[in-house]
Design brief:
Layout: H1 2-21, E1 26-30, H2 35-51, E2 59-62, H3 66-74, E3 81-83, H4 87-95, H5 109-112, E4 115-116, E5 119-124, E6 144-145, H6 153-168, H7 173-185, H8 194-203, E7 209-213, H9 214-224, E8 229-232, E9 236-238, E10 244-246, H10 248-254, H11 257-265, H12 270-278, E11 282-283, H13 286-291, E12 300-302, H14 304-308, H15 311-319, H16 324-329
Parallel strand pairs: 1-2, 1-3, 6-7, 9-12
Antiparallel strand pairs: 3-10, 4-11, 5-7, 5-8
């Protein structure tokens, strides 16, 4: 009996030591269209992490419209890292609760954005409405499927791309306002996030064109097949720079800073950059981008900050309550 008790205690001690040696799970709060990327990236990082002599780390994911996801973190969702599609949604963590430092974007290369993306049009097979550039989306009877810029970075990039097109083609700010307002009034519904908009277009068969990131086009092909749609690159696109950040208040409380920082840093590794390219995200590493040049057509990509000012100004001017989007859309 004594030997049995000793063995049980020893086994319990080993189990406790094993549990203690494992880090607390990491929670990555991300946006809608990054599901497939992180399905591939997370096991690659876990393998690398353990190969470095570290104990296993579990990675949990949360996906949704980017602004809604940021709001959830502000309201208490314990994200170790947040991986959004534009800086405004990470800035919000500083503005509301000081969950991160103001200079968070300076802690990793490329303003903490490990890859970029372009905005594309997904049209029905054969492009029956002949939608080739931004003005075509304003044609009578064309239904545009796009997520809400108030809740989705995807929607905000669409808005900024269309605004840029109007300015570049001889319009002033008033013309750009009118152009963007008409574009969004062509939308039969404004979903909260990019993946929901994809469901509306592909599964529910609503709309003539889905405006989304180029990496979502590949995800649509994988899920729904390649026969039902075509990808059109408009003449101009705002360059999407999806940033990432450690959520300091959470990792310091959980003791997961080391794991969280390594998880984000590995996005710039050769393996992380190739996984990005495999998922149709444009790598920052020019050598790896060149390896995949066949899948990334050259397109005029506008630098958003140089065109519109810093992200806090863009958010306040265009997307906050009462901003330009509310004025031009008007709730219809």
């Amino acid at each position: 009996m004594k030997r049995l008790l000793t063995s049980s205690l020893l086994a319990a001690g080993v189990a406790l030591a094993s549990v203690a040696s494992q880090a607390a799970p990491l929670l990555n709060v991300s946006y809608d269209v990054m599901r497939d990327f992180y399905k591939e990236y997370n096991p690659a990082f876990q393998k690398h992490w353990q190969a470095e002599g570290n104990p296993p780390v579990q990675i949990q994911m949360s996906h949704g419209g980017s602004s809604k996801q940021a709001r959830a973190v502000i309201d208490g969702l314990p994200a170790d890292v947040i991986t959004m599609n534009m800086a405004t949604d990470i800035n919000a963590l500083y503005d509301h609760g000081k969950l991160i430092p103001q200079n968070w974007a300076e802690r990793l290369p490329d303003n903490s954005a490990p890859f970029t993306s372009a905005t594309v049009f997904i049209v029905r097979k054969g492009n029956p409405k002949q939608l080739k550039d931004w003005p075509d989306l304003l044609k009578e009877g064309v239904q545009v499927v796009v997520p809400n810029p108030k809740t989705s970075g995807n929607g905000r990039y669409t808005y900024l791309s269309a605004w840029s097109y109007a300015l570049k083609n001889g319009g002033d700010d008033k013309a750009a306002r009118d152009f963007v307002g008409k574009l969004f009034k062509q939308a039969p519904v404004l979903d909260t996030g990019g993946r929901a908009a994809t469901t509306t277009f592909m599964q529910n068969q609503i709309g003539d064109v889905l405006v989304t990131f180029e990496n979502e086009a590949e995800m649509i092909a994988r899920e729904f097949g390649r026969g039902g749609f075509e990808v059109v690159y408009p003449s101009i696109s705002a360059q999407a720079e999806p940033p990432v950040a450690v959520v300091d208040k959470v990792v310091d409380k959980k003791g997961t800073r080391k794991e969280a920082e390594a998880y984000l840093k590995y996005l710039w590794s050769d393996e992380g950059q190739r996984i990005a390219a495999n998922n149709y995200l444009r790598p920052r590493n020019p050598k790896i981008l060149a390896e995949f040049s066949d899948r990334f057509p050259k397109v005029e990509l506008l630098d958003v900050v140089k065109t519109f000012g810093d992200w806090p100004t863009i958010q306040k001017t265009h997307f906050n309550d009462g901003g330009v989007f509310d004025q031009v859309y008007g709730g219809r």
